[in-house]
Amino acid sequence: MSLRLAARLARRELRGGVHGFRIFLVCLALGVAAIAAVGSVRSAIESGLAREAAVLLGGDAQMEFTYRYANAAERSWMTDTGAKVSELVDFRSMAVVGQGSLAERALTQVKAVDEAYPLLGEVVLDPDMSLAQALGPSGGLPGAAMEPVLADRLGLALGDRFRLGEQEFTLRATVTHFPDGLADGFALGPRTLVLGRNLAQSGLLAPGTLFTTKYRLDLPDSADLPATAQAAKQKFAESGLRWTDARNGAPGISDFTRRLGAFLVLVGLSGLAVGGIGISAAVHAHLAEKTATIATLRTLGADRRTIFLTFFLQIGALTLVGILFGLAIGGTVPLLLAPLISAQLPVPAVFTLYPEPLTEAAVYGLLTAFVFTLWPLSRLEDIRAAALFRDALGRAPFLPGWRYLIATLLALGLLVGLSAWFSGSLWLTLWTAGGVVGALVLLAMASGLVRFLARRAGPIARNRPALRWALGSIANNRNGAAQVMLSLGLGLSVLAAVGQIDGNLRNAISRNLPEIAPSYFFVDIQQDQIEGFVDRLNGNFAVQQVETAPMLRGIITRINGQSAREIAGNHWVLRGDRGITYSANLPADTTLTKGDWWPEDYDGPPLISFAAEEAEEMGLQLGDRLTVNILGRDIEARITSFREVDFSTAGMGFVMAMNPAALAGAPHSFIATVYAEEQAEAAILRDLATAYPNITAIRVKDAIDLASDVLAGLASATAFGAGASILTGFIVLVGAAATGQSTRIYEAAILRTLGASRRRILLSFLLRNALLGAAAGSIALTLGIMSGWAVSVFVFDTGFSITWLSALTIITAGIAATTAAEIAFAWRPLTVRPSGILRARE
């Protein structure tokens, strides 16, 4: 009976419109819209990747080998398994135009293909022609195509000649689209496309050269992809094979999208928590306005359950309205902006209405509204009818009854659990939830401290009426001082954290570079070239330092006879091949942390020295046996020492070093780092590239700039995700200012009656909000720095240093936001006649 009556009363309440609930609806709709929009874009990208997976990969499956071609057994298996097979060789080289000192050089990622390429999709060329025409012979030279930026950098026009190593090519076209571009991964230079057989005389693919081979398979329609993958991995388990198939054709992009999407959704949840403060405040303000109505119902015999259900149903109906508005905005905005978003994305995306992210956002909205409305609603039970007639809603106990408290905690637990499930990151979710709860607790404590200090600051305000009135208003919590602290503080905390993350992402590389970084990395220096290479540099007065080392690449497949991934998980050292060097003596700049180096003339079973930090992360111990696949050959070596390796120096760093006899006979090349005066870099490159056309030079500054661009894009994405949070926080702040207007009007009437001028009253209002803004900004600064440190160190692994410009801007923003809100709502209290206000209060 009480439910039916409550529903009827709630329906009558709703006839009065949504007055007093506008902030409630806006906060809820904004939070839901932000989460729905981020989830919709993420789903669009995932759908695009799934639909185009085989095209993006370049085939149904790919077998990749490190610095070697497939052997006869591997080729035979691929031919028997696939309907078509395409071979691709990927490596870095220098594209050269001209001769001698006038030659122009640029780093390029060479993609050497066969006639079957591409198995799926189409390479788009300018001018429009077939790939066979572009790569075929022209004027007695093989043809080539390259990305437009590389042609522009070298000043090449169609028909011009250029060299790769010792082989000349004719530029026949520029490439505007690679169908398998995402599968190619990160490249330090624009791509050049040639036929693999035309590199036979280039001198670029000599034994030991750094290159990767990829074999794309077009499987029969009847093929069982999971079974085929399992068969390949079992048959070639010890070969160093890396298998990829159309189930995840661009794993790096897919993982990045998923992780970034999860992070942005959690940022959106933080924004929803900010909105929750506004929701709670709106409910409290509505109940305060309905004091007479509640008192009347209680006097007429309505029990507590009926009154609770009346307002619970009313707010529940408005919650559904707010969520629907949020879903409409979050679902349609990505559709409307689909052309713009697609143009900015490096991946295909299919934009449509996706039920999963919309459902996720709706669930978040329902739970958030429940958590933040149950608390103020529950306080109705402890208020008597007589107290309600005296407008004493604020005298209710702070904590609700046990059943409401338990229901709130259960809803919070459900919200956190669903967040972890939807985002796929338990620890990130727990840290986010803990950060939000901790921020609210700290802000609530800070609010109490600010009121305490305001009461104690009386002597400071002596003979300063405006300041004394402002402090008195804060001390008595009039005009929602605590609400301002919570809403503004939490919103600014999110913004401050994103500002710190942004700054640390942008400085991640440059901050860690040494004072003197190498000018160039040189790779693919052959064994018979290294002596002459070093001699040329030592004779150059502009060269400050030269470091060289032999280098091979290998994949760790086993640890103590067991699968490496089973022992060390998904550690980055195991995600692909790693550089390996050898040395008879302990290098002069190497520090051992444990164990001993092998004797100079050691010729026994293979031994290995491992990077100390990575060994600790992987759980390795002295004496452990590592199986490393190098050029298709398994080498089992025992760990005899750990050594310090600093990868942040931009110099040479090897995870693994072995004794020379262990790698005897293995074809390999040398790498070198050259430190030189900047003005001499171009001349050094010309001299070395002319003498050794097969070597590849990588300019360190260019590599840093490229990585910085990637990090800048990530930082922009996080800043965009935080925009909804800070906007919600400002709206909550405006709502707090609006709901406190009645108190402000009464206060102004009293002061004007006592002779205060409008100017002094306005000054007191502004001082009050400036003080609250400064306090909220200071707390937000602390919380933002702590949160930024946690995310930077534990999520992005970039290290951390405080970005002071961003940090200090937060305090200024806090003061400016509260002052702007006060100015917007302070004029009316100063224009209302005091007599009318005071008579209404009699």
From TrEMBL:
One GO cellular component term: plasma membrane
Major location (coarse): membrane
Record's bilayer topology term: Multi-pass membrane protein
Coiled-coil features, chain-numbered ranges: none
Keyword annotations: Cell membrane, Membrane, Transmembrane, Transmembrane helix
Protein name (database record): Putative ABC transport system permease protein
ABC3 transporter permease C-terminal domain segment(s): 267-380, 722-830
Source organism superkingdom: Bacteria
Pfam families (alphabetical): FtsX (PF02687)
Membrane-spanning ranges: 21-41, 260-287, 308-341, 361-380, 401-422, 428-454, 770-796, 802-827
Compartmental location: Cell membrane
Residues making up the signal peptide according to the UniProt record: none
